[in-house]
Amino acid sequence: MLIRHFCEGDEAALFQVFSSAIREVASRDYTPVQIEAWAPKDPDWTAWNIRIRDISIL
User: Highest taxon of the source (predicted)?
Assistant: First the structure.
């Protein structure tokens, strides 16, 4: 396994991991409205890029 810092171009893959964690792993913990707000089926990529821009991701 290679652990590296987030690189530009990883946005879609990172969203897939994030979305799967909410929609599949923890779906019993959230209402459908919360799930759609946190992990929309059709994400706003500009908003997602802004959201992840300033956090430390490995």
Answer: Bacteria
